[in-house]
Amino acid sequence: MSKHVLAFVGMKESDITARHGPFLRELLDVLADGCLQATRLRVDGRSTALGSTPKWLESASSFELGDIQPDAIVLKSPPLQDVLAQLHVRHMFSDFDRGRSCLDLFEDSLEDALAGREESDWYDWHLMETIEGLGRLFRYGIKRIAVINGRTLDVDARAIDFIKSLRTRVPDDRKVKIPGVLEVVEPSHRTFVLHSDIYQPLWGIASPSALREASLTEVASMPVIVEGIAKYRPSGTVLRIEAERIAPVPSGDLEQRNLDDELRAMVQEGRVDEARELIRTESNAGRGQALRVWAKLLEPPSSAPQPRSSRGDFDANSAWLREHTNDYRGKWVALSGGNLLDQDSSLIELRGRLRAKGLEREAFCVKVED
Amino acid sequence: MGARPVRDGEPRPPWCIGAARFDVGFNRNGARLIVAARCRLGTLKTEALLDTGAEWSIFGGELAEDLEQEADEETRDIVMDTRLGRVDSRLYRLDIALLADEGDDLVISASVLLAPSWEGPPVLGYRGFLERIRFGLDPGHGNSEEQWFFFGSAS
User: Fold this and answer.
1) Does the beta-carbon distance from A301 to B109 stay under 8 Å?
2) What pTM, to 2 d.p., does this model score?
3) What local confidence, expressed as pLDDT, does residue A115 receive?
4) Which of A84, A160, A175, A251 can pair with A89 through a Cys bridge, CB separation 3.0 to 4.6 Å?
5) What are the strands, taking DSSP E only, across chain A?
6) With the CA atoms of A98, A101, A106 and A109 taken in that order, what torsion angle do they form, in degrees rounded to the nearest 10?
7) A215-221, long-range: CB < 8 A, 24+ apart
8) Residue A127: closest CA among A51, A27, A37
9) pLDDT bracket for residue A206 (50, 70, 90)
10) Mutation test of the interface with chain B: which of A165, A257, A297, A315, choosing the one with the most B Cβ atoms within 10 A?
């Protein structure tokens, strides 16, 4: 059993103590949820899921309440190997010493969040939100919580604010469609690793309805398209894919999708010349038709002169803007030759009216500073 | 290119085909435009930040929604990391004209990002736009009448 001490620093004698019921309830809420989420994250790769808590998780994330002192509590929990072996859980999301307990895992997550390790696999959005619950304890008069177990982790109000700011940096979930080859990790948990040419290996979890065309083990090592929701780390990299559909694809289709994603990745990473070269190479190899849209979008710009269309407008329109800024703050205005043609708080509405009057090319439209 | 006296060393045709006055440091179109070039985006005559440090041209908010009606239909989704965070956008082909006060306008068949969630200024950036334009800025002596933007085709 591993032993963990949580010391509450800064409590005055007159203040509430760790024996106080509401204080203890709030603390244990955070710890129970935190241990459960940290354990699930290590095993499944996600800290939360819909539905009731699985039996293995309840067992693996349990801990005992030991000594309760006025300014500290002692907790104990068994090593995970004792629990998971009985429950036939063989594989894990990330390798770690199975002699560690759920409290150790929670502390690992807490340590990474406190250190601002944006690439960590050991916390996600929901677990960070749970950790932030420790902040509620400060209203009982304590200044700092020291989590002691060989290492000491200090949690104070500033640390909670830091974790909150870290959580706000996690990009929103996005729908994704990624080609690759599937490596099944734990069929009973529907967990997998997706290997693609574009991304680092991605951890994933398949929903029960994800496999319409084949079971998870049947598509292992085959080219597949995985569709689902990408969950992100604070750094912006993908933490995991929650797959809603996994379908095998013919190799020719996979090649096309790979090229599409490769070009997209090149553009997103600023490798535009490389993307243009790839399009040239593929076109020379007779595969240009498949990349027609990318070829058009990445074609270097061409230009041509056209008779001047705005003679005399600059000074007159600039003068109007200088004189009327205060009258039209935050509004879109349509000007021509120093005269106001129309104005609106919506550019779409304004342009609609200008089109109806045949003035859409003549009017100089600009949003006046707020 | 026009009746204005030409200053020593000033770009002239065929180096450039047009020249335009430009604004400096105005808060317009929802942001501060340090060098604001007057342009026509599709059919919309407006002004945008001329920014050689921006990888792509990008237009946000209602401007993006309006331009989506005029841009080429074929597009690809792109997620860009910007100084304002990650932005979901679409890469489009769109005609942009640099509007001349002297000489001719220059119409560029450009590639631009339209991103309704982009909260920064409308930007004329390098890839898909400036990369094939020959251009120069003459700041004069800080007087707006002396500030000229010269442009022409690089090919």
Assistant:
1) yes
2) 0.56
3) 92
4) A84
5) 2-9, 64-69, 72-77, 144-149, 151-156, 174-186, 191-195, 202-206, 223-232, 238-248, 302-306, 332-336, 339-344, 364-367
6) -20
7) A216/A182, A216/A184, A216/A187, A216/A190, A216/A192, A216/A246, A217/A184, A217/A187, A219/A182, A219/A246, A219/A248, A220/A182, A220/A183, A220/A184, A220/A192, A221/A181, A221/A182, A221/A183
8) A37
9) confident
10) A297
Q: Using one digit for the tens of pLDDT, what is the confidence trace for A219-245?
A: 777 788 888 998 888 888 888 899 988
Q: What local confidence, expressed as pLDDT, does residue A150 receive?
A: 76
Q: Which 3-state string (H, E, C) describes A25-38?
A: HHHHHHHHHHHHHH
- Per the CB < 8 A criterion, the answer to whether B33 and B23 are in contact is yes
What DSSP designation does A79 have?
A: B
Please say if the pLDDT value at position A301 is more than 60: yes
Rounded CA-CA distance A204/A193 in Å is 6
Are the beta carbons of A348 and B21 separated by less than 8 Å?
Answer: no
Two tokens, residue A5:
């001490």
Decide: B37 and B124 in contact? Cβ < 8 Å: yes
Q: What is the ipTM of this complex?
A: 0.92
What is the distance between the alpha carbons of residues A160 and A153, in angstroms, rounded to a whole number? 12
User: Which phi and psi angles does B32 have, rounded to 5°?
Assistant: -85, 125
The H or E element spanning position B24 is strand B23-28
Instruction: Compute the nearest-CA separation of B94 from chain A (Å).
Output: 10
Q: Which residues of A touch B13 (CB under 8 A)?
A: none
Give the whole-angstrom CA distance, residue A268 versus residue A270.
Answer: 6
Chain position carrying tokens 């959005």: A125
- What is the average per-residue pLDDT within B1-24? 83
Say if CB A279 and CB A298 are below 8 A apart. Answer: yes
